[in-house]
Amino acid sequence: MNRRKFLSYVSCGCCSLLIPSCSNAPITDRKQFKIIPEDKLNAQAAQIYEKIKEKEKMSDDIESLEQIKKIGKRMENSISEYFYQQNQSNPAENFEWEYILIDKKNVRNAWCMPGGKIGIYTGMLEVTKNINGLAAVMGHEIAHAVAKHSVERASRSAVLNIGTRLFDIASGGKLSNVNQISGMNTVGLISKIGILNPFNRKQESEADYLGMIFSSLSGYDIRETVKIWERMREINKGKEPSEFMSTHPSSKNRIKKINGWTNDVILDYPPIILS
Is it the case that residue 270 has pLDDT exceeding 90? Predict the structure, then answer.
């Protein structure tokens, strides 16, 4: 799938006032606004990661952890080789990759911190079912880090905080009234629903797309990707917040987009042969 086709699924762009500070996301070329230093976030993430390892119970499922590490290493190498072949700098060049499996069967989640610090909960393994499903989830989380989504979010939040505070001052503090339904002040509610949530959904869609690419480049069957979200949809049936209030796309929309991308990604991003 070419960039234009992807952008037809996921609209993007920076505020016109911020365009001089924009860069581009890898592969998709989506404009990004970043003012927070990446190395600062990576260092903070590394510290938090160590605290998580101390606080949380690590799984004794050595076989699954080794599988996670194997998939991760394969993706690391495939991502590096892809950008080398494209004569582009590797966005993950300075990452210090690390993988942990957290023993929480009731938690179906995974994450990747800035700098390549990855955590997967044992409950997620019940959803992934197989190596291709696990690769699909890991590809999605790795995509967040490679695309520097945390840097974007931190930068955008910093600007929004300044802007909304100034607007609140100009309004005589009227916007600080607490919204009883959300438990959030009006400024925060406007920012969350009107700006931050759509922005985060855009990142989630981009991570779905890039994650499929990274999985395909690494030789995994990305047709399993849609099955993951179908299983998640079934598990969360009736419990999902409306897309309007959520930071993630609805399962229905997510599945539709993934189905639309699958064949093109398989054709355009075949497995990379690593020496």
Answer: yes
